[in-house]
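Homework help board

Subject: predicted structure for assignment chain

Our instructor gave us this sequence and asked us to write out the predicted structure in token form, then describe one feature. I got the tokens but I'm not sure how to describe them. Can anyone check?
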Amino acid sequence: MSFPLKVFIYSILYIVIASYFEEYILARHLLYKSQCIIGKIVSFGKSKIFYASKAAREFYTIVEYVKNGEIYTTKISRDVKDEIGNQIVLAVGKKNKWCVRYKWCKPYNEHTGLYTMAEGIVLLSVSIIFEAIYGDIKDAFQILSVIAVLHYLILSGYIRFRNDMWKQN
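My token output:
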């Protein structure tokens, strides 16, 4: 298997798995200090840009929170257990550039997606075993390490981009 193909395959598999933990990781990110704030669930929504999509990440929860005496409204990924009126813990970035759920959630409507986290982990494990048998296992771990570091560094930008797409509704 060629090196660019390996990079592409491992990138896709890593993103499938890591997308389930992005908000959880960002809330605890070392480079971006967040403040924990209690928010109240106000409403729910679905992305209109990708309206035909049934992907779990297209559903969001609208939350209100108070920071420095001002009321802010934001959108975060929807959890299966979310109900209007419930309070949840949010991690809010400096200057309110991003806001995510502090605790890990089970995404709403995740069962209708093409891939689930378990399928992604199985595919990644099989590809690493295949690499260990027929190739150089060192390549696989070097590729995954670089992808993980890059993902970690651009995570807040990705979350802001996703939230901006939701705001266009």
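Reply (TA_rk): Your tokens look well-formed. For the description, you could write something like this. Helices lie at 3-18, 22-27, 117-134, 137-167. That's the kind of observation they're looking for.
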